[in-house]
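Need Cyanophycinase's 3D structure for a figure. Predict it.
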Amino acid sequence: MRQFIWAAGLAVLAGLSSGNAFAQTKNSAQEQDDYYPLILLGDALEVCSSMAWQRCFDTDWLDVDSMRSDRYLNLSEKSITPLLAGKNWPMRTQVRDDLKEALELLKDRIKQDVVSERVFLEEFTRRATRYMYDQLSEQDWNMMIDYLELPAASDAVYGVNLKATKTGAARDYLEMIVGEAKQAADGETPHVLVVTAAQRDSLDLVNYYLQTFASAGADASWLPLDVAVMAAREADACDELDSYRETEMGAYRRGVVHRELNARQVAFCEAGDVLTQLRNADAVYFADGNPDLLRPLFVTSRNEPNELAVAMAERVAKNKLVVAAAGRSANVLTGKAVLTGGSSREALREGVFAARVPGLGCHKDNTCPRNLNEHSVTYHPMGGIGLFRWGTIDTRMGEQGNHGRLLRVAATNRVPMAVGVDAATALAVNLRSGDFKVAGERGVFVAVGAQQNERAVAAGFHYLMAGSTGRFSNDGVSNVSFADEAEVVQLEPTTNFLGSRGMYDALRLLCRERDSVEVKQDEFTLTLLGGEAATKQKAGAECQVQNARIGMQYAPPEKF
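Structure prediction for Cyanophycinase:
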């Protein structure tokens, strides 16, 4: 059976590559040149809601009595005692004792047992207990919140309000996904299947996403599959799902906090049919999260596509399914090396590693893998789902200065092309022709032919703003049409190209009749080269280029 699935997966993906599978279809979507069944969002899909009022330009409509507006924590002994159990703090009794003291101090200060998560964070990071906050890893913090969290009301609504959403790009993304899905549904109301498996707590935002897509005019349902369900199924222990969430996802007490969703997931674990849900969908949406949690749903331990991956590829090939993914979940859609995390600084200084993401603060709880730290760049060398066949993907590109890590992973794995999508940006791709368009507010970075040595990496590159179009091929991009305008960045220019948008601020200089730009940050150097082969065009205040060169170097001072 395994060999059959593997062969079927290769056949379908080969069909995607050649275009033959698309050519055999005869539905309405196939007839349209503007059909884009693959949509990569550069960041999480965040719209105005009662849980995220900061994203709203109008909050008069909020009703805190009927809408979920925060998570609430219980600081009574009933919640704190299980949190401080020895099994949660192996070899770290001093940290546990310090945490107990900090929680007692905080509770004595606020004089109440129940407090919102926002207030708790504000109080916990004040001077008196800040020392404790600094001792906790990300995993520690998440475990603490999980143990203290009160159950969420099963009938609570998020109060999603698209019209009041500050960021127009978020509304545009939804319209794009629903619009493409409507083509796959032959004009009928599309059905969107929401996958939250990449999120550590795969239950927390389920209703938010369902209500968001419903507000955009789609029917929506949840696929209750994640790595905890897979592990519990394999062990025939679905009634112990909560314990598998702890070991597989680092999530605690989710069955208590989200009782209704937990019951649905347990029932799915016992008898759910994922292929039936997929066949009934016109679009699949992968919520932002950890690629290490999402990839196992589609790729076996032997790096073979499983039945779900094959079925999804078949429906995409027949123009019956649109696939959209946000943030780091988009990274998993590639058929090349999957970039999973880390910083450009570490990529240039230490290289990249075929390993799981270490986790922020892993040095605090002694969970960092050997030779890795919390910022080490990690990847899966054998690729992901395989829908985007041209190269490695990365997201939040310009905002986090991810160019160094993307170039390193591409060069290490000899990936011919690497694509980085900025936040507030979407890349939509026609998998039959390779045609693409850039939408939203920022741009897309495309690197070609990345090469490296121990301390430097270089590649050819293109940078295209929202409104641009082009075509992907095995050699790079062609048929490029630049955008005429772009949103104005409301930020001061920076030379920080390792953790911020400094690369794009440097790029602007190439559009000022310069053929080369060099920027330094600490022990690192960024070099951009234009020359006769490069094509440049401004879009508002931003600079778009085609066929330019980029180099990044780590040059520490010599020690004598």
